[in-house]
Amino acid sequence: MIHQKVIQLLLVLLFFNGFAFGQTDNFSVKENYNKQEVQITMRDGIKLHTSIYMPKDTSRKYPILLQRTPYSCRPYGEENFPRKIGPNKKMMQAGYIVVYQDVRGRWMSEGSYDNMRPFIPKKKKNQIDEASDTYDTIEWLVNNVPNNNGRVGTWGISYPGFYATYSLLANHPALKAVSPQACIGDFFFDDFHHNGAYMLSYWMATALFGEQHDGPTQKAWYNFPKPDTPDAYQFYLDHTPLSKLDPYYKDNFFWQQLKEHPNYDSFWQKRGIIQHLKSQKIKPAVMTVGGLFDAEDLYGPFNTYKTIEAHQKNKNTLVFGPWSHGGWASTKKRQAVGEVFFGENISQFFQEEVETQFFEQHLKTDNKKRNSLPEALVYDTGLKKWDSLSAWPPKQTKKMQFYLADKNQLSTNPKAEKKHRFISDPMKPVPYTENLNFRFTPRPYMTGDQRFAAKRPDVLVFETDVLQEELKLSGEIMAKLKVATTGSAADWVVKIIDVHPPEAKNHKENNKARPMGNYHMMVRSEVLRGRFRNSFAKPEPFVPHKKTDVNFVIQDINHTFKPGHKLQIQVQSTWFPLIDINPQNYVENIFKAKESDFEAQEHTVFGDSYIEFDYIPQTNKAE
Fold first, then answer.
1. Prediction pTM value
2. Residue 327 and residue 341: Cα distance in Å, rounded?
3. Minimal CB count within 10 Å: which of 15, 248, 300, 445?
4. CA distance 297 to 210
5. Please, what's the b/e burial string for 148-182 (b: 16 or more CB within 10 A of its CB; e: otherwise)?
């Protein structure tokens, strides 16, 4: 049994709004800041609990930094101080008015909670959304908090990152700088779904979002499930079909919403925020931050940046580093994701030289250098260095197609007559990692060694010869598969892998039983639930044995495959228990599938299938 206190600890590490990250040396928040707790009244009369930390030095005016969160702005009580406030230590010591607010319906705030509350573009009278709550909060702060300079910034990681994005829609004139970080863009493509496939690995997190509490509270009111085994693979296999999980969430309204809305219908569409970044005028400077190995939120940060860049004229910056979810807020010297080491002081560099600089530039009225950050700062996860770019993707990229040829080769020439076949058995699904202990949400698999999967008969493997020169892939990846199945439903998983040479050296982060020599490092991976190949809103079955196009986006990468390495592609149909099991017989709603719907099927991938990359030719590597 997983102990409840362990789950609570995992929750804090995963979601908490920034207080839990890092050490602060000898700097004391209590000695340098005054704290005030207020209830700010929204336009509909609901009061939101707000904690305000104000520098004790009142000889100058300060910008306001605001974070709105569903995860609590603890510690409560004006006499209680956290160890850290603000985005990072340097900014905390530099002096900002730092404000945290419980969003409506959460913790000490009044009102009802709505998961990914829809934005209302043209509000009437006292209609509210998170944009109006943000506007009303900023309006109160700039008019009531002493020593503020009239300039406001917002930031947040994960769900608070979503609220940071949402603040852009508030259109308050005092809002000058916004940094959405690991920001949720749409729950049909982030966190709980990837391209329509249900992320079973996120099932535990459902507890956080589907229970209302009775009025303001300082204590957690939600209850996490208590699996009876630490073996996640076996637990979820024993609870297939998904209806076997129902007893754990009898009163969880979000679990019911997931079940009742398996398609990208109006319920999900109106909760997405990306589309509103096109239609609403955005004025604040934006710095979107993400981790290239973020298991939860890749879609949100990439599409937040790209949409603003395509439709707005404001200052817009992208930062992606070699981090998992929120890793840039850490103070660890050595940066690793799973067993792959990327370098030292990477997060410190971001915090001190990028994040701090962004807010200083746009929130300090005496700062004239407003445009010194590059358009895009993206880490090359193969060469292990930062690329400073004038555009993302880089302007000099070209398209490259690798076809899934015979003899397990990647080729530049299609061979349509070639057929790669495998049996996909729902009761023997391909694991997503070798370490299948229960995790609140899995992360290390994003760089995980894929040698175990390459040995399975239900995983197709294709690779280049040993590379003689660098191959730099920068930008979006497209999977363009030609497939057939003996059934009427299937999922399709594509993994991009960097096969290290035999002489690759170990480091202290990797498991010595799994040496880096011939390590199959996953660089990027994605799934498409095949029923959504033509429309996420209108699913359709496969016609058995019919050759069918299956095209989907695999999120961007910035990775150089070095000489001596190989580029490998793996294609499979199960990825368990990262995603749930597809019955492989078409049913209207997989959440309501019966045991009799699950059946092994033969899948075929044709030789004119290909993976398309953005790459930088060797002669144009320097921008």
1. 0.94
2. 13
3. 248
4. 20
5. bbebbbbbbbbbbbbbbbbbbbbebebbbbbbbbb
